[in-house]
Amino acid sequence: MFDMDEATRPRLVLAICCLSVFIVSLDNTIVNVALPSIRRDLHAAVSELQWTIDAYTVVLAGLLMVSGAAADRLGRAKIFQLGLAVFTFGSLLCSLSPSPGALIAFRMLQAVGGSMLNPVAMSIIRNTFDDARQRAMAIGVWGAVVGLSMALGPLLGGVLVTTISWRSIFWVNVPVGLAAIALTHRFVPESRAPHPRAVDWLGQALIMVALASLTYSIIEGASAGWGSPVILALAALAIIALIVFVTHERRDDEPLIDPRFFRSAPFSGATLIAVAAFTALGGFLFVTQLYLQGDRGLSPVSSGLYTLPMAATAFIAAPLSGRLVGARGARPSLLIGGAGLAISSLMLTDLTAHTSVGHLLLAYFVFGLGFGMVNPPITNTAISGMPEAQAGVAAAVASTSRLIGISLGVAIVGAIVAPGSAAGAHAAFGQASHPVWWLLAVCGFAVVAIGALSTSPWALRTAEAASAMASG
């Protein structure tokens, strides 16, 4: 191995891990900017655009925990390199997609690789930084990179789509992925958990079935009809899979998710807050780009500039929220964040093609402030009171809930706007989106209400009781 001092190696490992989270997180925001171009080039329906996003997030959410367990058992550096290789190859295939169906399939392959990156990289960081203060600083850098990718995604995506084509948003992942594979092989030491958890394959399969069938029924229900036998069957399958999942998890010795966690009000609250906040984010990103490039006729670059205030504000607000959580607990950040999501959404409930630029930018700014404030305390709330041995699993559940929220946001919002936007690429998305903004406002108010309840003295007592039960 390359000779370097003990202080330099951990920083290099952190940089390699941050490189992986950057391309995975960038892939979420950068694809939204390209949706109108994908729609025109591949003649994709709105439901196919929804699947372009949700095929990625559903698979990612479904495999996140099992990938982490596999890395603990087989080797974190090994699984990390495998994830990079699969993600890079999937990105290359996405750039070559000849049809919407092929793009959706290759996005699923991307997600298989992506599921091996973020949770495994976090395990590598925890294993690399022994000192608690240095580990906290490393995790802070990690979080900042996520915010940076969110801020750069719309603008970078706009430039690439305008100057080259939508396919170029996937090309950028290839050289970065190959470089990360080489650097991981050379500099990241192998590590395994001393007592790895067994993989709950049945629980994993059930959660995948529940997520996929629920998402499919929502996305395709708008076109097939909500009373269609297929849609009703899939909705029923989602409910049955969820019931069987809960029953199985209660009986399994090493469950995918310990049901006793949900007796902790902060943990349950954080799960619901993550779903609500990221439903708002997924819906916002999906409908906003279609509106800006459709109703307003903006170029991808211009639409990226319009949403830059939202992303930049979220990037700035996130570390401020982290400090506020450290000083005063999670409640102030959750209340401010939920209020920001609700107020910004209410500002857009009468959106039209002629809404003033100033009004749009102010609404986007407030949304970014709300999202930036609400995201950091989610994990903090989830692990509140949990024993140290269970904190990683609790954090993984919070991350999975975020992805479920994005999937639901895209699915529900697309189902709402699809009937009113069937006329083509320049349809009236603004008018069709009015119910969307009311829905997102409800998500914001839900964050406020759940945030207040889950950080109360009663909630903290339930966390202590759940912790004692989980440790026993």
Top keywords for this entry?
472 residues, globular, mainly alpha, 80% helix, 3 domains, Growth Hormone, Chain: A, 0% strand
Describe the structure.
By secondary structure, the chain is mainly alpha-helical. It folds into 3 domains: 1-196, MFS general substrate transporter like domains (Growth Hormone, Chain: A); 201-253; 260-472, MFS general substrate transporter like domains (Growth Hormone, Chain: A, Up-down Bundle), CATH 1.20.1250.20. It has helices spanning 8-42, 46-74, 76-95, 100-114, 118-128, 132-163, 168-171, 173-187, 201-224, 229-251, 265-294, 300-328, 331-347, 357-374, 376-382, 388-417, 429-432, 434-454, 457-471. It starts with 7 loop residues before the first helix and ends with a helix.
User: How many domains make up the 3D coordinates?
Assistant: 3
Shape: globular
- Quote the distance from N terminus to C terminus: 43 Å
Radius of gyration: 21 Å
Give the helices and strands as they follow along the chain: HHHHHHHHHHHHHHHHHHH
- Average pLDDT level: 83
CATH architecture of the largest domain: Up-down Bundle
